Amino acid sequence: MATTMEAIVYEEFGGPEVLRHETGAAVPEPGPGEVRVKVAAVGVNPVDWKRRYGWVEAFYPTTFPAVPGLEFAGTVDALGEGVTDLAVGDEVLGWTKTGAYAEYAIAGTVAPKPRGLSWEAAASLPVAGETAQRVLDLIGVRAGETLFLHGAAGVVGSVAVQLAVAAGITVVGSASESNHAYLRELGAIPVAYGEGLAERVAAAAPGGVDAVFDAAGHGVLPVAIELLGGEGTADKGRIATIAATDAAEYGITFSGVTGAPDAVRAALTAQARQAVEGTLAVRLAETLPLKEAARAQELSESGHVRGKLILVP
CB-hemisphere CA count at 13 Å for 27? Predict the structure, then answer.
């Protein structure tokens, strides 16, 4: 077993230039109750570059030197003391404790990767699937209700659309017009971004909106409040955001922390099964080698990528 590995490391907050590609990083050793995985694919998420800037320390405190990345798909290659529910050679997907932008990582919460699900598709699921389900549960939207999903064509948004539609929820989703056909394919009613958004959503949902999921930010929270009856009337417990850092100013929940491990594992297991069955899909944008992590984060930050960016060690 090698003692060094390829990894992306940063030692200070800043732009993409702080990311350093190393080939001699130390391979982590699993402690009691832990497993090490050989990473096959890594999902790139907006939280990766937000952490790099130091913007989300309240949710994800950083210890330097740091390896970016939350989600991965790979193969268990070493077991810590006391691990009995996994075996060397098991193919898994989930979250890492030590950073996913690396050849090897210590796994956090994981689920089995079904045969027939590609490494890239598997690595695209954990963050988007967990986030989408967590927020849908948080705002309590259920069958027969109408959800407004802002940023519906993004990775988290598109997974949330699929989960909501499958649960019998009507989804009105905002996106750029070039993504409207895609949203219709997923079962949502598309509306355009920009001035007059509240009016367009109201026209698309003449019976009213019951809950709002903001996956994009860009000042939409006043619109969300208006759609639910206006300030003083709206039930703000039925609005949540994963993108608007000023949520507290509006009395709205910013949801940024994963749920209980057992529930997260169960949901991810179910979503991976749906993915291999073809009933849940994440649009893949591009696969890049790990050494191009800085470019991948720049692409993610630009906001113009359609689908998931994947890194491969």
Answer: 15
Q: What is the pLDDT of residues 88-107, one digit of tens each?
A: 999 999 999 999 999 999 99
What's this model's pTM, rounded to 2 decimal places? 0.92
Q: Are 214 and 151 within 8 A, CB to CB?
A: yes
Q: What are the angstrom distances between the C-alpha of 31 and each of 9, 18, 28, 141?
A: 22, 29, 9, 40
Q: What's the domain range around 71?
A: 4-124+282-312
Residue in the block written with tokens 């690396």: 102
Does an H or E element contain 227, and which? helix 221-227
- The answer to whether residue 154 sits within a structural domain is yes
The rounded distance, in Å, linking the Cα atoms of 130 and 40 is 20
Residues 155 and 141 in one domain: yes
Residues 115 and 136 in one domain: no
Summarised one tens digit per residue, pLDDT across range 286-303 is: 999 999 999 999 999 998
Co-location of 191 and 112 in the same domain: no
Examine residue 268 and state whether it is found in any structural domain, yes or no: no
